Amino acid sequence: MTMVPFHSNTDYLALDFDGVIADSIEECLVVGHNAYALTGGESDAIHHLSDLDSETIEEAKRLRSFIRSGQDYVYIFKVLDLNVQISNQSEYDRFTSEHQEDHDRYFDLFYRVRTEMLDRDAKAWAELNPLYPGMKEFLDAFDQDRLFIVTTKKVEYAQTILQNNQITLSTTRMYQATREYSKQDILSKLAEELRVKPLSIHFVDDQIDTLTNVQPTGVQCYLAAWGYNNPDQVYQARVQNIPVLSLTSFLDRF
User: Which residues, listed in sequence order, are joined to residue 199 by a DSSP beta bridge?
Assistant: First the structure.
């Protein structure tokens, strides 16, 4: 498919954080596991993902492609604890809907455990979130006046990870999406504030559902194939004419 050119002097780049800038899967699954342990599940707290058996790690990583927010990392370990077979997004969404009563508790537990880990040893926590190869050099070289981060991660968490990698980016360039203020809301608002056409904003995310919601705004969307998605989600992107980028093609394009 033909991609809209990126003009470095007039266009803007907006990046998701987890699955685009940072490979956060170890940190998120460690936090999710330990949060689930506090609910009385059959698991003890761990410090590294390697503390789990390889089969559990593999299945937890596979389920990662279906998650939507922090509490979902706790739901992953409920799925594993109950030995529920999940093969697609619809089945995962049905499972969380059937256990909706856990949502708020899992959300609170996830962020409580994460905050405790960060407060105990911020550097060790940040190192569980390594940047993807070449990303530090890319961010160091990119014009920050034309760069935004739009993520469901709390800004202070993303900032801690960037600072651990000696990357300075003003928090005024970083936006946290919530259920009340979605990524499409943020990007539409940015276009208004920047007084540009939405097509002048190029948005890279690794979740097809997010891009599907953002696409009608007119923002140019891209799927980060190096992030947390599966072949079916990559296929959905192509069907919807959303360009699929490898990490190499992303670094070359922008």
Answer: none
